[in-house]
Every structure is written in structure tokens, then in C-alpha cells.
Amino acid sequence: MTTAARPTFDPARGKGSQAPTRIYSSRDLASHTKLKFRQTGQTTQDELNRVDLKAQLKKAEQDHYEKVNKVVKLGAGLSNSFKDDNDDDQKQESAAATETSTETPLERKRRLLQEAERLDKDDSDDSDASKDSDESDSDSDSDDEDDTAELLRELEKIKRERAEEKERQERIQREEEEKAREAQVAAGNPLLDMPEASAASSGPKDFSVKRRWDEDVIFKNQARGMDDKPKKRFINDTLRSDFHRKFMNKYVQ
Length: 253
What we know:
Protein name: Cwf15/Cwc15 cell cycle control protein
Helix content: 55-70%
Region (Disordered): 1-45, 77-207
Family: Belongs to the CWC15 family.
Pfam families: Cwf_Cwc_15
Keywords: mRNA processing, mRNA splicing
Mean pLDDT: 76
Number of strands: 0
């Protein structure tokens, strides 16, 4: 009869007759036996009661409106400055107009004549300077054109010579490649390299297969079969396996 399902002796006796133990596991001990409360600076209830939330809201609104009013005032100041500049320009124009209106017709005529003479003098100076510069420029331009034409002719001559030289070299290279290709084709086919096909050949060609130097030696293939070991095979029969046959041949016969 099996005893696998029967309890051992100590559990069967129970704990009434055993001495009480004072050894406990750390997992059996009580943990978190005290509640944690908020400390000072952690928004306790007293701190929240002392804070005036309504005053903070009003202060934030006042700061916002002050910022908006400052921006509006800054824009108004800029527009006023532009307006002041326009007023100054208008004042200067009005002052010039009053000065022109106060001068007499004789003075006005004299002023206009002086301005006309000054403008004519400036135009004559400019025309003289432009004529001198045009003459010098025309001389220099003619010389430059002659030099440029000469340089262009030399450049065309050099380009033409280089093109001719390049074409000549390419023609020579093509001829050499064609000759090499023909020679390769003639040498590649032994039937075309016969004396009848080529007059420059010295004699008939030998088409026999060349023999190796070790074909007629006495000791040839002496190591053949030395490394031919039988491959291991698996036979699912102990009486016909290779090991059994080798064992029987070695120890029984």
C-alpha cells in the first residue's frame, strides 16, 4: 500500500503539543502602520486657508489690462510722432511759400536768371568732359578691337591644329587596333594558320596533343587507394553491422 497520500508524523500531530515559535518571516511583519500627513510647504489646509485667491485673481487681471494699455499708448505715441513730422514739413513748405510770395517780381526774375546761368554752366562742363572721354574711349576701343581680332585668329588657328592632331592620332590608333584584331583572329583558328593560308609561315603546324612529362615513368600512381577509407554506414541490425562483423573476425575466428 502506498504512503504518498498520507501526511507525515509532525503535521499529523498538530501544533497543540509543540512549543510556540517566535521566529517570523519579514513578509509576515506589519508594515505601513502610520498614516502620512502633509508637511509645511506641501499646500496644507492651513496654508490654503491663509491664501486669498480672489486678490490673486484681481491682481492678475490688473496686470493684464496694464500691459494692454501700455501697448495701445505706445501705438498712439508713434502715430503722434508721425503726425508731428508731417506738421513740421507742412510748416516748412508754408514758410517757403510765404518767402516766395513776399519777394518782388524783379528779385524773382533775377533769381531765376542766376539759376539758369548756373545750370547752363554745369551742362557745358559735363558735355566737354564727356567729349574728351568719348574720344579717348574711341581710340582705346579701336586698339582693343584690333588686339582682340588678332587673338581670336591665333586661337582659331591653335584649335584647328589641335583638332587635326587629335584626328590623326585617332586614325593611327584605329589602324593599329584593326591590325591587332586581324592578327588575333588569324592566330586563334589553327586551320587558318596553315602554310596554304599564310605564306609567311615557316612550315606545317603540328596538331597532335602534347603528352605530360610523367606519363612514361615506372612508379606512377603508387599511392592510389591508400586514402580510400570505407565510409561509415548505419545498419539497424546488430548481427549484420560493420562493428559486429569486425569483432567476430578479430576475436572469434
